[in-house]
Design brief:
single chain; 209 residues; DNA-directed RNA polymerase subunit beta; mainly alpha; 2 domains
Amino acid sequence: MSDEFHKPTLFAGSRFEDFLGGEDPAHVSRVAHETAAALLGRVRSDPRPEFIDRLVTYTDENGIDAIAELWSRASPRSLPGALWSIYLLRALTRQDAEQSSFLFQRGTETAATIDPVVAGAPDPAGPTEIMALADRILRGLFDGDFAVALERAAAFCRVTAHGATGVADDVELITPERASELTVKASRLAHMSADLVACARLWRAGSLD
């Protein structure tokens, strides 16, 4: 990794090319873990705001494909898996901020938990607020308590999953296809939440790698 994050570089070119050429699963896994550890270690040792800004908005300018190539095949309960989950969550939130905010708001209104507080969302949380929340969660990985950021993301997922389930119940008789899509979405978010909680525990135990 270079000493500076020159826009729009996120990883050293040679490292990325090396990854693309490696089809061996062990090689893919090794590079995923190495790049995740190098990136996190670099920015947390020198958390300048301009560096973190570039990391948070990297996928806005460059797409999520490069990060997916690096980390999406890692175990979801690993350091690269955790980073990938948060980047993916942010990308999906921004992709349809209106729906994301609608489902999250529905979840806050019906879930009898403190998850909305843990996530740190304002009430009400419209599209602008929900995108800002996703940014803050990702930023927290780099300049805050890593485990807390993961727990906030997990709470975000649980609230949204609860909202998706509620809306699915509402529309099941009218649009069963939409209900099915929302049910699948809720299930995936619930699994992501469980993985993020596990990652937070591993991080606190010093064994998330």
